[in-house]
Design goal:
Helix content is 41%, strand content 19%. α1 crosses α11, α2 packs parallel to α11 and α8 crosses α12. The protein has a seven-stranded mixed sheet, with helices on both faces. Strands 9-10-13-12 form a four-stranded antiparallel sheet. 47% of the residues are buried. By secondary structure, the chain is of the alpha/beta class. The protein is globular and about 60 Å long.
């Protein structure tokens, strides 16, 4: 079965896997105090141009979102996001399970607007019953968004300005961060993203690693974050598993190189679909492409190709998501072209 289902259904990039094998027999310290984790953290600080940043390596995206948000909010505080935000729709209520309300604001092709955020905060500030509801404590966005769209550096700056005005930390979910940077044609950079927020994470699971996300606190981590990570079940006893992988990903710009490959494949994929007259649900520059397919075409293709059935478009069409990754090849695209006919 040819797969364009997602960007985490392969193993690890060969260079990452090679580094794991090469270091496999070395005894190291545990819980992330090994030399490879320390090397990885320093390489990440250098790449972000944040020499004093606190960096933590966690196992997966949901654990990372839950741990970061729980660490930064008081028990009565809520996190603001868009109605299509990952924490609002695709994490099984993990944030609410931690005791924090998720407040959903309007989504503009997956993005939060600074104007909507400011308006919501103004209305909240003038609500006479505001002390009786969950208090806004932070803002969460994804880059890229759940719909594959990108914030520009200007948009990030505007959102950050509103957050600072109201004293709200800004958290950027970077599960697919590499693909977002590669698709921005230079408008977004790792140092620029690091400066735009209070905390973000560099996704490894979807960008070449077996597993792992690197959380970067630009201005220092909340007190006791290590212990809270453990409390959330996100601390690896064999922390080296994450450290070795990020050490490889941040050697010789591997993380950005393999991200650029995925974007190149996505552009080819889009051209291939457009040439056959298919419409697109949204204009995504990243590795997620959302195409509108007739229902009978969906039935035909799913016999030989794995993709995501995203949502109904109308009575006779369905929105389907096709995703490229570091592992997508020219041969995959050629095979898809032959199947499409």
């Amino acid at each position: 079965m040819l797969s364009f289902e997602c960007d985490y259904n392969n193993g690890a990039h060969p260079d990452v896997l090679r580094h794991l094998v090469e270091t496999n027999s070395e005894p190291t310290l545990t819980y992330g105090f090994d030399e490879y984790t320390m090397l990885a953290k320093e390489k990440i600080r250098q790449a972000c141009q944040l020499p004093q940043a606190d960096v933590f390596l966690l196992g997966g995206g949901t654990q990372t979102n839950a741990a970061v948000i729980d660490a930064m909010l008081r028990s009565y505080e809520a996190v603001l996001t868009v109605e299509t935000g990952h924490i609002a729709v695709h994490e099984a209520g993990a944030i609410e399970h931690c005791g924090h309300k998720v407040v959903a604001l309007p989504s503009h092709e997956g993005k939060l607007s600074a104007a909507d955020l400011r308006q919501w905060m103004e209305e909240f500030s003038h609500d006479e019953s505001r002390d009786h509801v969950a208090q806004p404590g932070m803002v969460y966005i994804s880059l890229p968004t759940e719909l594959g769209t990108l914030y520009t550096s200007r948009e990030l700056k505007d959102i950050g300005s509103v957050c600072r005005h109201y004293g709200l930390p800004l958290f950027i979910d970077g599960a697919r961060l590499g693909y977002g940077i590669a698709a921005s044609d230079g408008d977004l950079t790792l140092p620029g993203i690091a400066r735009a927020c209070d905390v973000f994470y560099i996704g490894g699971t979807k960008v070449g690693a077996l597993c792992g996300e690197a959380v970067v606190f630009a201005n220092g981590a909340p007190r006791g974050f290590f212990s809270l990570v453990k409390q959330h079940g996100a601390l690896f006893a064999k922390g080296r598993l994450l450290g070795v992988q990020f050490d490889a990903l941040f050697t010789d710009s591997l993380y950005l190189r393999i991200s650029a490959h995925a974007i190149s494949m996505a552009r080819r994929l889009r051209e291939l679909l457009a040439a056959r007259g298919y419409r697109f649900y949204i204009d995504s520059p990243t590795n997620q492409q959302f195409v509108v397919l007739p229902n009978d075409e969906v039935s035909r293709l799913e016999q030989r190709v794995a993709f995501t059935h995203w949502c109904p478009y109308d009575a006779t069409h369905f929105v389907c998501r096709f995703v490229t990754s570091w592992a997508t090849t020219e041969a995959d695209l050629q095979q898809l072209a032959e199947i499409l006919g």
